[in-house]
From TrEMBL:
Neddylation of cullins play an essential role in the regulation of SCF-type complexes activity. Residues 36-223 form the DCUN1 domain. GO terms for biological process: protein neddylation. GO terms for cellular component: ubiquitin ligase complex. GO terms for molecular function: cullin family protein binding; ubiquitin conjugating enzyme binding; ubiquitin-like protein binding. It comes from Patella caerulea. PROSITE patterns: DCUN1. This is Defective in cullin neddylation protein.
Amino acid sequence: MPTRRRPRSPSSDDTRAKRARVTNWSKREPVSSSSFSSKRCEAWFHEYTSPDEDEISPEGMEKFCEDIGVEPENIVMLSLAWKLKANRMGYFTAEEWAKGMKDIQCDSTEKLQQKLDYLKTLLDHPVHFKNIYRYAFDFAREKDQRSMDIDTAKAMLSLALGKHWSLYGSFHQFLEQSKYKVINKDQWCNILEFSRSVAADLSNYDEDGAWPVLLDEFVDWFKEQKKNS
């Protein structure tokens, strides 16, 4: 990995180590990818890390988002994280970066900016969006927990469904006053299916359907709110 120290005459050990790093990184680059440079991609990665770091941390991520002109809270960043198969929100490892950027053929800020429209189109594709939505659960939850804490869940639901689900505002209010402290993966996945299949007036909601109790309670709450309004 390149460092940011003053130049010095390399020792033989330094030279061998440097060659090994370049070789290992370059192996990830397909031979046919003539326009993509793994060395340039590596140097780009290290614009956002300290010399001894092997991952981009939240501080570096903030600068990265600023450079590409995208707010960290923009859903296109979730689409990018999905393409990079990032494991943890707010971080990109060197391996995730190398493989993911190779996949979308980006080795510079300018190339990624040209791919932003492509990353947005993934969100408009029903199957890709479903995969991104499901990925978001494991991406955003604390890795030592099987469920997602409710505050994170509300933030991620706002990001993923806030502009596309007419009942999102009501569902958010329901979560605000509910007893729920976490959302599990089954609940998370069913929220998407509910938003896609149940009408805004709940007229086609099946009380005998296999929805999680969370959604049954939301329906009861929603009907009660309408009755009292």
